[in-house]
Structure formats: structure tokens, C-alpha cells
Amino acid sequence: MDKLRITGIEVSARIGLHAWERQVRQRVSIDVELATDVARVAATDDIGHALDYGAVARCIVRFVGAAEYRLIETLAERIAQRLLDEFPVERLKIVLHKPSGVLSARDTSIEIERTR
Questions:
Q1: Catalytic residue positions?
Q2: Which CATH architecture describes the domain 2-115?
């Protein structure tokens, strides 16, 4: 299976365990890897057969921008489910980065993989 990757989708989100964290929007970054078969697309060079990665990115931005969760694990899981519901992919991987998650660290992230 081939993989399409979109890296570094940046969104302002309401995410955090503490009440003060949910009162401000924080930057999160999302990487997504989608399992898709590109053989037909490559053979025909027809955009109609391709996975619309622009639509995938817009879906993530809309969803995360409207969401409010306490845990990055929950947000990653909900993003994965939304993508599986809306796009024809058999498997995906999400890496959700929350740079402000730990004060003494450059980044905090969760990586999940889901299959239809």
C-alpha cells in the first residue's frame, strides 16, 4: 500500500487538562499519513482518482479548530475517526504535536495508527 503524507498542519486549538489551558487557544501541529493505492491515479494521471489531500488538510483544520478536549490522545483519536469516516483510506497514522505540553521540552506528541 502506498502512503500519502501531510506534515505540519498547524491549528490553534482549545486543548489541555487545566481550565486556564482551555481558556486560550494553543498551537498544535498534526502530521498525517494515509494508506492509499496510487497505481490507478498514476496510470491515468486523473485527479478524479486521487485522494484529495487538500480536502484532508481542510477537514483537520476545521475539526481541530472547533474541538475542545482535555487530552491530546483524545484529539488524535477523534481526528483519526473523522478521517476514516470521510475519506476512502484503509489505514492512517496521526502524530499530534503540542509544543507547549511540557515546559522543559521542545515538544510533546502522541502517535496513533488506525485501520478501517
A1: 98
A2: 2-Layer Sandwich (3.30)
What is the per-residue pLDDT for 59? 98
One-letter amino acid at 22 equals R
Select from 52, 63, 67 the least CA-distant residue to 6: 52
Chain segment 29-59, per-residue pLDDT in tens: 999 999 999 998 899 999 888 999 999 999 9
DSSP the chain: -EEEEEEEEEEEEEE-SSHHHHHS-EEEEEEEEEEE--HHHHHHT-GGGS--HHHHHHHHHHHHHH-EES-HHHHHHHHHHHHHHHS--SEEEEEEE-TTSSTTSS--EEEEEEE-
Taking the model in full, what pTM does it have?
Answer: 0.91
Give the three cell numbers for residue 48. 478524479
